[in-house]
Amino acid sequence: MALYDAPLLFGFEQESTENLSFIPLVVRFNLDRFGQRISLEQWRRLPHGDRELLARFPVEDDVAIEPNFDQALAEMLRTHADARPETFTPDGDPIWAHTDVVPETVIRQSSLCGIGSPSLGRWSELSRFQRYALAKLSRKADVNHDFVPAMREFGLAD
């Protein structure tokens, strides 16, 4: 398992993560995949180098990632935050993994933002991580300030 050379941040996240003060989508993706949850307070208690390392873990399917991510996160939290990640059973069939349907939440968020939702063809062309990002950004009923920039970055909006 190889780490990315630098934190994997989407362009639209560069400003919103404020130099990793907020949990980037790459970390959220791996937390969700491996059934772990941490608070923003716990994230911010980690040294910047640890946050950067967690943001360098791959988003590809690789069985070697899980124990390394789990162990790294647990050790970092224990050492720097005197905490443990909350665990849960990950969704075995998340909607963002499907290429045969655009999630209702993405359609709703597009409407809230006044833009067209992705066509099924364009949705299916996105990477798993891009689909995850849009689904994550659209999970709440309020407008997400990163949704339109993400749609633009992924070539889905003008």
Automatic annotation (TrEMBL):
Top-level lineage group: Bacteria
Cited InterPro entries: NarM
Alphabetized Pfam families for the sequence: Nitr_red_assoc
NCBIfam families: nitr_red_assoc
Name of the featured protein: NAD-dependent aldehyde dehydrogenase associated with FdhD
Lineage: Bacteria, Pseudomonadati, Pseudomonadota, Betaproteobacteria, Burkholderiales
